[in-house]
Amino acid sequence: MTFSLLHATDFADRLLYKIIPPLKAGMIVLADRYAYTAFARDATRGVDRQWVRELYSFAVRPDLALYFRVPIDMSVDRLMARRVKLKFYEAGMDLGWSSNPVESFRLFQGKVLDEYDRLVDEFGLEVVSAVGSITEQQRVVRALVSQQLQINHVEIPDEQPA
Amino acid sequence: MNNQPDAPQSTDAGASGDIQAGRYYGRGIPYLPIAGYPGKLIAIEGTDGVGRSTQIQLLREWLEVKGYGVVETGWTRSPLMQPTIELAKSSNTLNKLTFVLLYATDFADRMEKEIIPALKAGFVVLSDRYIFTALARAGVRGVDRLWLRNLYGFGIAPHLVFYLNVDVKTLIARVLAARGMDFWESGMDLKVGDDIYDSFRAYQSKLLKEYASMADEFHFRVVDARRSIDKIQDELRKQVAAFLEPEATLKSEG
Ligand SMILES: Nc1ncnc2c1ncn2[C@@H]1O[C@H](COP(=O)(O)OP(=O)(O)OP(=O)(O)O)[C@@H](O)[C@H]1O
Ligand SMILES: [Mg+2]
Question: In chain A, what residues touch B3 (CB-CB under 8 Å)?
């Protein structure tokens, strides 16, 4: 609960100082993570789903929300490949589900992914498969963004006439 | 989500509705079930400088002599948040929404780490201020009341809420005699008065109205705090005794 509110406080600060002013100025704001991260993470940590949604009702609804979906095994593999040290909270170690950080991460993030799946329908998130290459993903992203912005002449390399 | 960051809105009642003492106001903390905990939660509410700490000190001594284990908790006393809140106050850069959330974070931390464990262990928890101060301060600053009640839906409804009621005139005299007026207690951020005296008067009047508007909703036991320290304490002790030891109280009166 404390964790959840701490993140909400930080989010409010970011929203009011970094997101709303550029929006008012007519700019495009790209947010790396948004309220949906909190919905997924907090529900996994046992916080009431409805409560978190109402908590964040002060947030601006994004014009487009992209969800990069990846199977849990691939997520674990990618982390291992980068040899990053798993963060205590990111691995949900505080929940005591497993004393092994990798196993704990798999259990915790697996549940987080389940929560994201609920959000896709509830909030109309656009799912981008994050299984493919960065180029493939970027192609999908650009298509979605240009559709949203009503841009018709985007340069997508292999769709251009030779 | 909507497009008005300053006036969040919500459709679902949180901390209002049916209130049961010792239970969560709203959706609660699902991973911390509290039903059946033996402790008792007593909140002493009232505006800045009205005399809460004085009363709690006396109440605590009296309860301890009677053999109760007493735990005190107070606003912005969470070890986690206090430095942050003090910093934010001194730098004066925080938006009201961020402020509200910081206070709620502090309260959540004390709920999880102090209040709930103490109730579980059977203590009498005396709370110097409770969620009502937060609701009142945010309310006068225009934050959506329904949203606030949902926010504090993780709070536990106290067994007793004493509201130390005072009028602005008495309050001003008391605060000036004790320690003078402070920037935040005067609502100087709201620019409601030209100098600190006018501001204090205007702001505290609004706050008192806001508290009063919550009295029925949250079952306040309103105590006339214009009286002497001893008179107030007598009334508090009578009511606490009647609650904690209903049989003994009946016998001694009958
Ligand atoms: N009933 C009373 N009559 C007159 N003076 C009082 C009364 N109660 C408290 N005081 C005096 O008012 C001052 C403030 O009291 P106290 O510190 O208990 O208030 P408080 O509500 O805890 O204040 P704060 O909001 O700053 O925590 C003290 O000097 C105290 O002696
Ligand atoms: Mg005090």
Answer: 60-61
pTM assigned to the model: 0.86
Q: What is the pLDDT averaged over residues A17-26?
A: 93
Q: Is B174 in the pocket of ligand 1 (CB under 6 A)?
A: yes
Please report, for residues B7, B58, B187, the alpha-carbon distance to residue B140 in angstroms, rounded to integers and kept in the order given: 12, 31, 10
* Probe site for chain B from A3, A42, A57, A95 (most B CB atoms < 10 A): A57
Which residues is B160 bridged to in the sheet? B42
ipTM over cut 0.95: no
More confident residue, A91 or A35: A35
Which contiguous run of DSSP H or E holds residue B40? strand B40-46
**Mean pLDDT across B4-8:** 43
On chain A, the residues whose CB falls within 8 A of the CB of B33 are: none
Residue B72: how many other CB atoms lie within 10 Å: 19
To the nearest 10 degrees (0 to 180), the angle between helices A2-14 and B96-110 is 170
Is B49 a pocket residue for ligand 1 (Cβ < 6 Å)? yes
Asked if the Cβ–Cβ distance from A58 to B97 is below 8 Å, we say: yes
Q: Which CATH superfamily is domain B40-230 in?
A: P-loop containing nucleotide triphosphate hydrolases (3.40.50.300)
Alpha-carbon distance B171 to B50, whole Å?
6
Residues from chain A that touch B95, judged by Cβ atoms under 8 A, are 12-13, 16
Question: What single string gives the DSSP state of each residue in chain A?
Answer: -HHHHHHHHHHHHHIIIIIHHHHHTT-----SS-HHHHHHHHHHTT--HHHHHHHGGGSPPPS--EEEE--HHHHHHHHHHTTPPPPTTTTTGGGTS-SSHHHHHHHHHHHHHHHHHHHHHHHTPEEEE-SS-HHHHHHHHHHHHHHHHT------GGGS--
Q: In a 10 Å sphere around its CB, with 0-12 CB exposed, 13-18 middle and 19+ buried, how is residue B15 labelled?
A: buried
Domain ranges for chain B, please list them. Answer: 40-230
As a whole number of angstroms, the distance between CA A117 and CA B22 comes to 36
CA neighbours within 13 Å on the CB side: how many for B214? 29
pLDDT at A153: 56
Report the nearest atom of ligand 1 relative to the CA of B225: 1
